[in-house]
Design brief:
Layout: H1 2-11, H2 56-68, H3 70-92, E1 96-107, E2 120-121, E3 126-127, E4 130-144, H4 149-216, H5 222-256, H6 285-289, H7 291-312, E5 317-328, E6 340-349, H8 357-423, H9 429-434, H10 436-463
Helix pairs in contact: 2-4, 3-4, 4-5, 4-7, 4-10, 7-8, 8-10
């Protein structure tokens, strides 16, 4: 009999017309690198990846940024909000109990269904038409989650909460890599200024030498002005570099959420040697290593749960309501045994005609899920692209750096030869001093390549997830 009743109830439900089809996820063979991208070292970044540079200044800056950056504050607030949403949805599926207290002063109509109570007949308990009714007791309600709608809603909110946690790790990675990039931008500019000042010293000596010759009338003023123009150009570069350091510091201060005096002094240090490494294969390992991808996977999983909840809304819902307390038309009788009242109300709610609301809700849930799947697929391809680009640039920069080091050695040989000729009296001191300029120029070019290599190494660390690890990755099962 119960089965027959349940069958009839299901047969009378609103029909699903817009279930739709889930989009396909990106195939595993696309999560890989081209065969021609190789680095000398093989491996993934470690947690606190920046400590491999062995720079206490950098450690302090990143730790301060991860603690105080406004982006981190916002990310932590979103995590807290998501946890509250989970608690709110979970609470709605539990037994709800409330205490009731009601005082109602009413006049009974003589022509209503309580008409007799409007009369004055104390012997019959009728003292109308005015009554002061009181109700005191406990009310309870419980939704019976037969079709899993509430469970799906809880799972969806948990998915969002987990996504927010992964997004927080993604923000941490973004901040730490940005701080490192700005920090080494400052360090690179320090070294550039040092080389430019060496060039300025050479230009100063050349000006003095040419000026002395012009005064004696042994050479035209042209060479003097050429040397002066070169010095002015060098000093322009120094001024621009000093301004660049100020810009880097202000960007770093804003990123860290520091006040005008909240950014510590940054002393010059040597640029660290390259440590970049690239795993031999990416595959699904990249999905566990990238916090942004893991966050996207959680959001996709949450969308599947929302689809389940939207489907469950088509089926009958059951609840049980209950009341226990006292109810009396006269306050003097409220707390007597005869005024006790018990209500137990099982309820069945069956959607039949809803104007298409349920189908629209399911269609929207499916469309939102498919959008997230496509965004996830795009994010995976972009992640592989980021790794491939950073890796290939590092390979190219490594080759360029090796060639540039040979150029520095060659021009250094010319400088040493000029100095040797000067020591033997075969060349002037001016010639020997000016031979340092090509060496400085090539050292500037080498410094630029070293800075680019360091920047790409940090970019590769970010592309590989910066040491984040979610084990195992979320398993996506479209529904």
């Amino acid at each position: 009999m119960l089965a027959a009743g349940l069958f009839c109830a299901l047969a009378g439900c609103a029909l699903i017309h817009h279930n739709g089809v889930p989009y396909a996820q990106i195939p595993p063979e696309q999560i890989r690198l081209a065969d021609d991208i190789h680095l000398a070292r093989d491996g993934w970044p470690q947690a606190r990846w920046w400590t491999r540079f062995d720079d206490p200044q950098l450690d302090t800056l990143i730790e301060q940024a991860l603690r105080d950056a406004l982006s981190m504050v916002i990310a932590r607030s979103r995590v807290a909000q998501a946890k509250s949403d989970v608690e709110l949805v979970s609470a709605g599926s539990n037994l709800q109990v409330v205490a009731l207290g009601l005082l109602d002063r009413e006049r009974v109509s003589a022509h209503g269904f309580l008409g007799p109570f409007a009369e004055q007949a104390p012997a019959l308990g009728l003292t109308g038409p005015w009554y002061t009714e009181g109700i005191v007791g406990l009310g309870a309600s419980l939704d019976v989650d037969i079709w899993g709608k509430q469970r799906a809603q809880i799972a969806a909110s948990l998915g969002v909460s987990n996504a927010r946690l992964a997004e927080t790790s993604a923000v941490e990675l973004e901040i730490s890599t940005d701080v490192a990039q700005l920090y080494y931008g400052i360090q690179t500019t320090y070294h550039l200024i040092e080389l430019l000042r060496e060039s300025d010293e050479v230009a100063t000596f050349a000006i003095e030498a040419h000026e002395a010759r012009v005064v004696r009338g042994v050479e035209p003023r042209t060479l003097l002005e050429e040397a002066r123009a070169q010095q002015l150009s060098t000093r322009q570069q120094i001024v621009a570099a000093q301004g660049q350091i100020k810009q880097f510091r202000e960007s770093l201060r804003a990123l860290m959420g520091a006040g005008p005096q909240g950014l510590p002094a940054i002393a010059p240090v040597a640029l660290p040697p390259a440590h970049a490494s690239l795993p031999g294969t990416l595959s699904y390992e990249l999905l566990a290593r990238r916090p942004d991808l893991q966050a996207m996977r959680w959001l996709v999983q949450s969308s599947f749960d929302r689809i389940d909840a939207a489907k469950a809304a088509f089926y009958p819902s059951f609840d049980i309501k209950a009341f226990f307390g006292v109810d009396a038309l006269h306050l003097a009788d409220l707390f007597t045994h005869a005024s006790q009242q018990i209500n137990l109300i099982p309820g069945l709610y069956l959607p039949i005609f809803d104007g298409g609301r349920l189908n629209a809700n399911l269609n929207g849930a499916r469309a939102a899920s498919n959008t997230l799947i496509e965004q996830y697929n795009e994010a995976v391809l972009n992640a592989v692209r980021d790794v491939a680009q950073a890796g290939s640039r590092l390979v190219t920069l490594d080759a360029q750096t090796q060639l540039q080091k040979q150029r520095v050695q060659s021009v250094a040989f010319v400088k040493d030869s000029a100095e040797a000729h000067y020591q033997r009296g075969l060349a002037s001191r001016l010639t020997a001093i000016q031979a340092r300029q090509p060496v400085i120029a090539e050292q500037v070019a080498l410094l630029t390549l070293d800075a680019q290599t360091l920047g790409q190494e940090i970019a590769l660390t970010k592309a590989l997830g910066g040491g984040y690890r979610a084990d195992p990755p979320v398993e996506l099962k479209p529904r």
